[in-house]
Specification:
Layout: H1 2-10, E1 13-16, H2 20-29, E2 40-44, H3 71-78, E3 82-87, E4 99-100, E5 104-105, H4 121-128, E6 134-139, H5 145-150, E7 154-155, E8 180-185, H6 188-198, H7 201-206, H8 217-222
Parallel strand pairs: 2-3, 2-6
Antiparallel strand pairs: 1-3, 4-5, 6-8, 7-8
């Protein structure tokens, strides 16, 4: 309900992920409760979700429905998270705003005259507007960090190759800097919980190219605050 409300105001959601109700019922029957049990999670448009498109804001990808979840979505589900919406991006995603010809312009919920930033702008707008408490964005040159800053949120661009990539193929460009998926939320504790949940055996088995190094809570807790 909240997500619909925020979307009406700022146009940040591109699709609602079907099957999330079924997934919740399935989770209730499981003995093992994952670290993200029952948490609805918003997913940036270009991250593959089974039965949905990953448009990248480009018309050429509109007919390509994905046949399976990307590794990161599989791991979120394994940890009890419930991916429930896909969120808007700028065309090609190499942009600091959040607008494309398919889904239109996303506004900043804190000020509708302003941009939410990009390219994870739909994530920034949805979380800042109160429609999601945890989202997965991606960042090459600021695509998590800028919307987090513009929308007053916390975001993390992990080290390169720390998390399995989004699973979208047919990239129109090659990047010199490693693009990384990462969490966005309203506080640092949520980012840490999400990283801890993602860096698990399931991730390392599904994508053997990811170094099997679990999240180290000690490093975070002993970090000197600036």
């Amino acid at each position: 309900g909240e997500a619909l409300e925020v979307n009406r105001e700022v146009n940040c959601v591109t699709d609602f992920i079907h099957g999330c109700e079924d997934q919740l019922q399935k989770l209730k029957k499981q003995k093992e409760k994952g670290l993200l049990y029952g948490i609805p999670i918003s997913i940036k448009d270009h991250i593959n979700c089974k039965g949905h498109i990953s448009s990248g804001g480009m018309v050429k990808f509109l007919g390509q429905v994905k046949e399976e979840d990307s590794v990161v979505v599989q791991v979120l589900k394994h940890q009890g998270g419930i991916p429930f919406v896909k969120t808007n991006i700028p065309q090609t995603m190499i942009n600091y705003d959040c607008s494309n010809l398919i889904f239109g312009q996303t506004l900043n919920p804190l000020n509708h005259q302003k941009s939410p930033g990009g390219s994870s702008g739909g994530e920034g707008a949805l979380i800042a507007g109160g429609g999601s408490i945890l989202g997965i964005g991606s960042d090459v040159a600021g695509s998590i960090r800028l919307p987090s800053s513009f929308c007053g949120l916390c975001g993390l661009k992990p080290t390169g190759n720390r998390i399995s990539p989004p699973g979208c193929s047919d990239r129109p460009f090659v990047l010199a800097v490693t693009g990384m998926l990462g969490p966005m939320a309203r506080d640092v504790d949520s980012l840490a919980l999400c990283m801890k949940a993602l860096l698990c055996q399931e991730m390392f088995q599904l994508d053997p190219s990811v170094p099997p190094i679990p999240f180290n809570d000690e490093v975070r807790l002993t970090g000197t605050p600036m």
